[in-house]
Amino acid sequence: MHCFACQSAIDPGDSWCSKCGAAVRRLRVDPDSERRFVTILRADVVDSTGLVAELEPEEAVSRLEPALAAMRGAVRQFGGIVSKELGDGVAAVFGAPIADDNHAPLACHAAIELVRRVASLGDPGLQVRVGLHSGHVVAYMVASEFSKVYEIGGAAQHLAARLESAAEANQIYVSEACQKLADGHVRFEALGRKALRGFSEPLPVYRVMGASDLSSWRVRRARSVSRFVDRTTERALLWRATERVSASRQTVLLMGDAGIGKSRLAHEFVQGLRTDGWRLIDAECSPNLQGASFSTLKRVMLSVVEAAAREPGRLADPRKELSGIHQLALDAVLDLPVSDASWSELEPYARGRAISDASCAVVERVARQQRTVLFIEDLHWIDRASDAVIAALAGLQIPNLLVLLTSRPDGMPVWIARCHAEIVAMRPLDNDSGLAMLAEMLGPSTANVDLKNRIISHTANVPLFIEEVCRSLKDSGTLLGQWGDLSLVRPVDELGIPSSIQGVIAARLDRISRQERSLLQIAASLGPRANQAMLRKVAALPEDALQNYLAALDRAELLVRIDSELEDSLEFRHEMVRQVTYDSMVEKVREGIHAAILAAFESEEMWSDGPDTLCYHATRAKEWQKAFHHGRSAARKCLARSAYADAVDYFEIAMGSLDKMPVSHSRETDAIDLRMEARLAFAGSGRVAEALELGKDAERRADAIGDIGRKVAAMTVRAGAQNFYGTPVEAVAIGEEVVRLAGEWGDPGWRNLAQYSLGQAYFLAGRYHESEKTLAVAHAHLTGAEAGAPIGTTPRSLLLLCCMMKSFTHTVMGGLDVAEQLRQQAAAIAEETGRPYDRVAAAYSGGWLMLGRNDPAAAAAILEQGFVLAQKHGIRLFVPVLACHLGIAYLEQGLFDRARGMLGEAREEAKAVGYTSAVLRSSIYLALATSRLGDVQAAQNMLREARNTARQQGFAGLEAEALFGEAVVTPPSSDENKAAILAALRGTIAIASESGALPLRQKAEAMLSEMLARGDELT
After folding, report:
1. Can you spell out the DSSP letters for 512-548?
2. Beta partners for 204?
3. How many CB atoms neighbour CB 555 within 10 A?
4. Strands 89-94 and 81-85
5. What separation in angstroms does the CA of 205 have from each of 45, 55, 189?
């Protein structure tokens, strides 16, 4: 630690520097730091170094201070906070520490004002440039001994700084994120993509051209893509107020959170009044003008003046009938020149009284001539000077005047009760209205029903949220088409939170107390639903305090009590609130909450959910040992129900968690064992290449720690994966080596798996006799005293696979009776375990046997059940082979179109999985289906390619099937073709004889004999 003044070393316990006597400044970061979505402004004086390079320090400060003061003033005028002064510029933030959904427009207006103020200094040497960007930051308070400074951190501030550096003199450059949020409120010019220092790719950049003339309502209306729906109750209340207006003034306040539809309802209602002959006086409070005195009242008076100008015969200029002082008051509000000394001599209070009386006189005169609606929107943004006058207008006791106001709950004026206003609390739409709104935007098609229901649940039927979620999906390309006819083109994992409404939700969260927010953060970490018992355990609050906070959160409709059989159930009003709450926490806070939740779940009395929940919280808490343990338990739970894709996810979490722990021998043994256990999940879900890499990685780790036993296990996994992903030559070579090593090592489980894998490798190589012998040894072990299986499976499941593979071998070799016995044994095991994986394997075995018996209809019935089951449970490893054999069954029934479709699907799925033998087999039979549909040339080409590939890669059995297929599809229309047929049949017979494929050999011999019997046709 060093002194800030003289940089001398200071001991940690010292309060004063021993060299210069300066007090020690100990900076601390407030633990209440949080993530915020804000807009950052960076501004500096162009070439400030050149301006002050030759000046004395005092002169340099004086030279730049006017510009800095102008910057500070502009930022503060629009609600920003100067987080840092940089000598020749400022860094400011909008939307923090109190969230504001208008942070981007406010920042843009502040930048425009900043440039204007500096230019108005009249110093040509002082020119500024500004950069703006909207994004997530970490915001926190840094306190020293003498002051506190609000700091922000994160990559977002760097982009704002780079935009500032790229901007030209007196120009404002903004990012695309800021432009999207402020578009409509501000005019922009697109500058294309620009290379910015520190960013690898050029980014879209926009230049601010000026403030827009559009009102906030017109901006919102221009963005809207839905029609007005429902609001039957609220409209009835409004019409009831109009019925009473002939007797006395009526005041109605539409109150609701941002996005609930206040403005939409009010404008629809007012339009109906105008159609019925009502006169409209309207004004909109603006967040940009909260600091401008009488800005709202000015808009009210301008509305009256403009109405008089449009209807000179019906409405006289109301100013002409005012007294002298009232005319001066109105001129002052309208920013007209006031030269009368009597006005300037009035005391401020008297001026305010005159402005209020003049305004009331004008509105009263208008209302007495014609039924009038005074519509003032967004009272939560009203300026202080206008507030008192609008209160007086709302309290006028005259007939034919309807005062219609809108406000958010946190901005409801204190005078509402005094004017006896009827408050209409706006609620979200009901489900039917929400779906009607979605039907208008997405289209009436039932294809998007699931998406529509998800959006309803995600947004809780808040109209703005529905619109913005749909817009986000369309902008991202997830929905394609035009509004009213959109199609979902890819699955939607997360609906997310559009940036346009993050500030809306964050502003709601800022209205609750710190204690209530802490409780909400715990609930957000638990998920969409929580219960009081868990909140009580984690928050450790007194019961009365807990109930008070929960009641406050329920009233705010953030975390609400639900009717449920589950005791003390609570849920978020909608998922967006939960996500924004969760995202607002910095990483350390999240980790602490998840650690507390994990501890509560692990305690005996709180145990309710399974290891998947514990894994989630352990991972978020970064408690890696527990994440490994619970991740592995969750993966095993998924494996037990054949949910392989889910199992892969948890195995990856467990493996990643282990790798984050310090290196040790025990860590490495756990890592190897985990990869061995995960092999079936990866292979079963079709991620065969990754299963192969698991074996290779485990083998490398076993070598590194000198563990021969685990190395053999890893090699066994690699050998099994080679059967699907590699060539038979590779698979047989490693399989034979692994069987030898496994026998020497002495672990019966891995030995049995190694023998099964080698039998499978022999089968794929077309070495059926060797396959049968090897599988027989494995079968004997698995049904005897050494019925062991390695981690990740059971002896019964491994026996089922062995029966399946052995049944294939006997079917190919013509031993159908033995194959039937094995099929029955496999089916019995599947019935016993009930595991979808086992049932799929048994179905595959039965379908293959039925094909061997020349009963394609029975085969199709069995294979269809297995195919559906494999797809339902994501057992992707079996999908291509089941589809292939199902296609063969269709082919042999003469259903050629169905066969071609199914075999084509099988081939594509096999390619995606990397299942080499399945690609070849489906190609062979796809060629046969193609031939039967008339395209002989295409069939011949496919078969020739399959035969060559099978020969090159060592798939002898498939080479024989391809040769026989060539003989079948080649027409004997020429001597050349007949010679090719004879050669293909003889090649088939030779390979089938050597391999032991008796049925195939017999079919080839029969066809050959038939051709030779017609020898008179050959030359």
Report:
1. S-HHHHHHHHHHHHH-SEEEHHHHHHHH---HHHHHH
2. 193
3. 10
4. antiparallel
5. 21, 36, 9
Interacting residues of 68 by C-beta distance below 8 A, sequence separation 6+: 85, 88, 89, 90
Contacts of 230 (CB under 8 A, 6+ apart): 429, 430, 432, 433, 436
DSSP string, 459-470: HTT-HHHHHHHH
- Tokens representing 232 are 């039957």
Q: What is the pLDDT of residues 276-331, one digit of tens each?
A: 889 999 999 988 888 788 999 999 999 888 887 777 666 667 777 788 898 888 88
Strand ranges (E), 934-1009: none
Pair 680, 792: CB distance under 8 Å: yes
pLDDT at position 353 is 93
Contact 187, 158 (CB under 8 A): no
Tell me 25's DSSP state: -
Residues, the chain:
1019
Amino acid identity, position 580: V
Which two tokens mark 990?
Answer: 């030779």
Strand partners for 254 = 406, 424
pTM reported for the whole predicted model: 0.78
Q: How far apart are CA 34 and CA 589, in angstroms?
A: 9
Q: How far apart are CA 1019 and CA 1008, in angstroms?
A: 16
Q: What CATH number does the domain located at 33-211 have?
A: 3.30.70.1230
Return the domain boundaries, the chain.
1-30, 33-211, 231-425, 431-509, 512-585
The domain 512-585 is placed in CATH, from the list 1.10.10.10, 1.10.443.10, 3.50.50.60, 1.20.1530.20, at: 1.10.10.10
Q: How far apart are CA 822 and CA 805, in angstroms?
A: 9
Question: The tokens of 915 are what?
Answer: 């299942």
456, 434 in Cβ contact below 8 A? yes
C-alpha to C-alpha distance for 238 and 269, rounded to whole angstroms: 8
Residues 6+ apart with CB under 8 A from 498: 468, 469, 471, 472
- Give strand ranges (E) for 445-519: 479-482, 485-488
C-beta of residue 751 within 8 angstroms of C-beta of residue 743:
yes
Give Cβ neighbours of residue 100 (< 8 Å, ≥ 6 apart): 79, 94, 106, 287, 503, 507
How far is the first Cα of the chain from the last one, in angstroms, to the nearest whole number? 102
Of 977, 975, 979, 945, residue with least CA distance to 962: 945
- Separation CA 174–CA 310 (nearest Å): 40
Residue at token pair 């690609």: 919
DSSP string spanning 375-400? EEE-GGG--HHHHHHHHHHHT---TT
Question: Which helix (H) or strand (E) is 129 found in, with range?
Answer: strand 128-143
> In what helix (H) or strand (E) does residue 569 lie, and over which residues does it extend?
strand 569-572
CATH superfamily of 231-425: P-loop containing nucleotide triphosphate hydrolases (3.40.50.300)
CA 624 to chain centre: 25
- How is residue 48 written in tokens? 């400030």
- Tokens 């050494």 found at: 786
Q: Comparing C-alpha atoms, which of 932, 935, 947 is closest to residue 980?
A: 947
Quick one: what percent of the chain has pLDDT higher than 90?
A: 48
pLDDT digits (tens, 9 = 90+) for 372-430: 999 999 999 899 999 999 999 998 888 999 999 999 988 888 898 888 889 999 888 88
> Which positions ≥6 away from 856 have C-beta within 8 Å?
850, 888, 889, 890, 891, 892, 893
Give CA–CA dist 86/163, Å, rounded. Answer: 16
| DSSP characters over 803-826 | HHHHHHHHHHHT-HHHHHHHHHHH
d(CA 107, CA 81): 10
**226 token code pair:** 């839905």
Strand-pairing partners, residue 405, are 253, 376
Calpha distance 61→55 (Å, rounded):
9
Residue 402 to residues 272, 376, 696, 942: CA-CA distances in angstroms? 14, 11, 79, 81
Report whether 712 contacts 695 (CB < 8 A): no
